[in-house]
Specification:
alpha+beta, Arp2/3 complex 21 kDa subunit ARPC3, Hypothetical protein af1432, Beta-Lactamase, six-stranded antiparallel β-sheet, about 10% strand
């Protein structure tokens, strides 16, 4: 079922239940106390708080909605829930409102409450009484059933809609955005039960006297949430400095070892992919591997440069000095209180499977899995890279060496997984025939003579299609059409540089929700795309949520960004950014494709007409891509 069809079904079902509920309320006049609960629900809906750093909102409105259903029946509960959905819809940004979305937001909770209230009434009766322990237990069972149904139906209906719209796994959407809300639902259900018992025992006057209590709680929570948000913002700034320091340290190691920064990036990317292939799914372990891959050679800062870059074979004495870098690196990193085990991976990434490695001579499974992965990946990349003491080897020769060391130096299961990973990497390589890009029909090539490179033909066709285009929307649409078959499902956003504000402004988008990005303004040097614009570096798999405006950040499913700058000479034209829902969704092949497409775009279209030198002095910072 398509997303649009599913939403229509929910709206029709909600409209039907709403009509039935209104009819029931008109036939049997309802207690005037219900209007008091309705007023409290509407007032509470305007007082929603968001959990800092999480896509979760909460309010005390749920308590009054549930109380309406438990005290006055399913019809009253459904209408109250629908009103709450309407109020929440009008609290959304104006650009996100639509008649269909408002109707869906009113229908989903009404359906959930109507079904849950009927189940509660079937178990507890319409006027439950507590006449002993067994009656209390049975009422508790009815209340828990009500909470489970209300929670599962309400969150499930929305999760299905989001999953169908974003074309991602529904279970993943529910787990990420809704599973943590169970406490809010059950807390509201038990609060509603307290109000239900009060309405049976005391008069409305007593309930009115309790009204200041939720107001006091809301005020206290709002201050607490504000303080938490300030702390999270501060931690975010500290984390940026922390990550930048790691990047700078990694670049310092690379500079001394006369290798490029691409070396540690390749090692990092391949180590993460190989770890996933081996079934490593613990987030802290993956973060440790990610940091260790960048910093595994940090101990080389203490190795004399004449040994580190010696053009010939090391003597035994020199090799003993070189071997110290693993232990030194671990000692350096041990003073940093990483929240995950980085130092052990760095210390043991030269240990051998058979126990003949250094510095501690441990073997087998005693070697951390991250170190075993890093050892294989680092060896392959070193063998296939130029070094002061030898030229690079071919992939085939390097793989043969790794095969020969299987079971002695390297974990056999890691080697087998690496070969499987290499097969996948080669199949997705831009040199493979399958990656040719004939999206836009190329001009007829003469049969005589050799055929040009197919990628070159494809980019020539792209240049012809973009030639003379002036509308940013057309440029981005054609470019997205051209790249789409070779990328994960993603949204392409074109940012133009605005000299007056020294910022980039999203002027066109393709592949996502229409109008979601248009108008987004990012100052140079800020977020991901602003950093790319300021430094002219590219960003690979940075967190896409950083580019999203704050009012949308908590609800977005986007996780990865691939961003490149648009330049003409030294002048900045803008930025092209791809956003995808998957983590680490892009790779080096995708980066090269987008860089090539950006070069074609600025030369073939009129985008370069707006290029200008940024108003402030550009200060290059550490490469974070």
């Amino acid at each position: 079922m398509s997303s649009a069809a599913y939403v229509q079904v929910i709206i029709l079902l909600g409209a039907g239940l709403g009509a039935v509920s209104l009819l029931a309320l008109t036939r049997a006049p309802i207690d005037s106390k219900w209007w008091f609960f309705v007023a409290l629900t509407v007032a509470s809906s305007w007082a929603t708080l968001r959990v800092p750093g999480m896509p979760i909102s909460f309010s005390i409105a749920d308590t009054f909605i549930f109380a309406s259903a438990l005290v006055f029946g399913p019809a009253a509960g459904a209408i109250t829930a629908a009103l709450d959905g309407l109020v929440l819809s009008f609290r959304m940004a104006l650009s996100q409102r639509s008649a269909q979305r408002i109707a869906f937001n009113a229908s989903a909770p009404a359906i959930a409450i109507w079904v849950a209230a009927h189940a509660y009434a079937a178990l507890a009766g319409h006027n439950p009484q507590i006449n002993g322990p067994l009656a209390a237990v049975w009422l508790l069972v009815a209340l828990i059933t009500f909470g489970i149904l209300a929670f599962c139906l309400n969150t499930g209906i929305v999760a299905v809609a989001v999953g169908l719209e974003r074309k991602v796994a529904i279970a993943a959407v529910w787990k990420q955005h809704f599973s943590a809300l169970w406490l809010n639902y059950f807390g509201g259900a038990f609060g509603a039960m307290l109000l239900t018992l009060l309405t049976h025992v005391y008069t409305l006057d007593v309930i009115i006297l309790l009204t200041p209590l939720p107001i006091i709680l809301y005020t206290a929570l709002r201050h607490a949430v504000g303080r938490a948000q300030d702390h999270i913002g501060h931690l975010g700034k500290v984390n940026k400095v922390y990550v930048g320091a790691i990047e700078a340290l990694a670049q310092a190691v690379d500079a001394k070892d006369q290798v490029t920064h691409d070396h540690v990036r390749r090692v990092q990317d391949r180590s993460l992919e190989l770890a996933r292939l081996l079934g490593v799914n613990d987030d802290l372990e993956m973060q440790a591997i990610k940091a260790a891959a960048l910093l595994h050679d940090v101990g080389k800062l203490a190795i004399p440069e004449h040994i580190l870059n010696k053009p010939g074979r090391l003597t035994p004495a020199e090799y003993d000095i070189m071997k110290r870098h693993a232990a030194i690196g671990a000692d350096i990193l041990s003073v940093i209180e990483f929240p995950y085990p980085v130092a052990p991976i760095v210390r043991h990434h030269h240990e051998h499977w058979d126990g003949t490695g250094y510095p501690d001579g441990i073997k087998g499974d005693a070697i951390p899995i991250g170190a075993r992965v890093l050892a294989v990946v680092d060896c392959f990349d070193a063998l296939t890279s130029d070094r002061p003491y030898r030229p690079r080897m071919t992939d085939a020769d390097a793989l043969k060496i790794i095969t020969d060391r299987k079971g002695t130096m390297y974990d056999p299961s890691v080697v087998d997984a690496f070969f499987a990973y290499r097969e996948v990497e080669q199949m997705t390589s831009p040199t493979a025939e399958a990656t040719a890009m004939p999206v836009i029909e190329a001009p007829q090539i003469l049969d005589a003579g050799p055929q040009p490179d197919r990628d070159l033909v494809a980019f020539l066709a792209l240049g012809l299609a973009l030639s003379g285009m002036t509308r940013a929307g057309d440029v981005v649409r054609v470019l997205h059409q051209h790249l789409q078959p070779h990328l994960p499902a993603s949204t392409l956003v074109g940012y133009a540089y605005d000299r007056a504000s020294d910022a980039i402004v999203a002027v066109a988008e393709a592949g996502g929700e229409p109008g979601y990005w248009t108008g987004t303004t990012i100052p140079l040097g800020e977020r991901v795309s602003g950093w790319v614009a300021a430094t002219h570096h590219s960003a690979l798999n940075s967190d896409a949520r950083l580019d999203v405006d704050e009012d949308k950040r908590s609800s977005t499913l986007l996780r990865s960004t691939l961003s490149v700058s648009l330049t003409s000479g030294e002048s900045l034209c803008g930025v092209l950014s791809l956003y995808a829902t998957g983590v680490e969704a892009f790779d080096e092949r995708h980066r090269r494709l987008l860089l090539s497409a950006a070069a074609v775009l600025t030369s073939a279209s009129d985008w370069h007409a707006e290029c200008a030198e940024p108003a402030h002095v550009r200060i290059p910072v550490g490469h974070t891509s």
